[in-house]
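Deliverable D4.2, example record:
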Amino acid sequence: MPTIVPFETLTELFINLSRKYKGAGKKPFYFKPTPDAEYQPIDWDQVTDDVYSLAAYLIEQGIEKGDRVGILSENRYEWAAVDLAIQVVGAINVSLYTTLPAHQCQYILKDSGAKIFFVSTGLQLKKAVEVFEDCDELMEVVAFDVPKLEHLMEEPYVNMFEDVLIEGGKHLESHKATIKERVKMVQPDDVATLIYTSGTTGKPKGAMLTHNNIVSNVKAATQHIYWDDTDRLLSFLPLCHSFERTAGYYAMISSGVEVYYAESVDTVSKNMPEAKPTIMISVPRLFEKMYNLIVKSVEEGSDAKKKIFNWAVETGRKYAEGKRGLVSLQKKIADKLVFDKLKERTGGHVRLFVSGGAALPPEIDTFFQCAGMNILQGYGLTETSPVMAANKPGQEKVGAVGTIIPGVTVGIQSLDNGKIIAEISGEDYPTDLSSEAGEILCKGPNVMKGYWKNEEATKEMIDNDNWLHTGDVGKFDEGFLKITDRIKHMIVNAGGKNIYPGPIEDLLKTSKWIDQIVVVGEGQNYMAAIIVPDFEVVAKFAKDQGLSFDGNEELIEPEEVKGVYKKELRSFSKELASHEKIRDFRLVANEFTVETGEITPTLKVKRRVIADKYGHLIEDIFKNDKD
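Output generated by the structure prediction step:
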């Protein structure tokens, strides 16, 4: 479906939506005032009033076109209202992950030169107060919530969001002419936001995304994948990430989709039945957890339950392959016995799952397809605003990230000689094209303007022919793009074989015993792994075996537990080439988390951090090989 109003900038998107829905009672956003409350709507007239009041306040505080305004907040209505006000006055949104520690917030605020900093909870306000004095250009902090620690509000530069709205409302009349001028001044090539890449190495870099970068991507994604004003989305991926920003926010409101805000990432399973979304935009981690919960439940059940489950999956597979007749009747029975329960957990109305941010394991993709809950896997980077490719409803290819979206060109560059092996533009789609693997390159209106105050990094990312180098390895398979892994993740073993750990990890993560895994073996004769067990599964096993333990440290020590993993790895290794097989492993007692630094806010593993933190275990694995 085309977007419901014309717009060439995000500023125009707000202005035209505001005009279209004036007095219509259209409700774009829903939130929960308390955990036990029902979802409450906010209509466009309220959004319009709030955004203009905030815009007047920003102008009153001296925010000029091109100035930076920071937001440190979970997904909530206030985030959207502040963002739209920033776009109205022609400023630049600088968004931060709520999981960042204070010193990283300080780096981004100083690097961007943010002048006003909007924060959500008391926890985030505490970070802002801690770094304020060291951020020379920062003038003010605005808190969405009243903090429990009252002393935080005693700082003269801290104001409450509600007070700011009232104050802005008082100045709105006097700033109406200025707001109109600012709206006219915003051009498609102006920077709309700085999105700092969390990165797995080095300092964060601020990707400069223009209005045209994002608008072109919104229009292309909306043309590629159908959604309309009868849909509703549950928003829970961080809005400071380009995937949720473009697909889960701008694309949604531009098509009239209602956005429901999850209370937090941890409450998604609770909020799905409450919001009853028709669209879910997620990273693979959610689907992995859903899949593993189901597999765990089946394996703990009776033999009859296992047989019914396996029969239902096989029936779903036949139906997904296009078989009908008796299979149609069997599918209805399979739904009633097995799959409808899974659908109920998602609220019972989801018609569109969209997955991005990381590779979706093919086994999990296939399972959801068998359940009649197809996942549209997509691909892109922060620097490409972000979507480059996505599967279309009814045209999904398991193991692929889809076809190239309109307006975007993707090339495959040989890793050997640097030549372009294959090239596809979204307007000219050759379904028969296949290619060898190489680095994925991108051209198009979605490619960022560059990195903020970092020409060197920009030149490393975008070459003289305007190709953006993704650092990902992939290939075309009958016109569909497939991702192999990151170039920098490639492991070269002692025999000189190139091994990409991503697909191996994706395969092993489908085991009910494995929660997280990192494959290691650079320069070694074989591959090994650092494994975070599914502690709930292991604990049940230990109790069934009569093993006593106190905490995860003791839980992973018994030989009986290690024996299970040896057997599991041997079983999965049958599907791997000899040089890819996992020959040894070590179990660790703590989950990889954002807070402890092993994964990024977008849930990508920081391999160097893992290598440093668990270097003693890796060394222990391979020491006998060296002796």
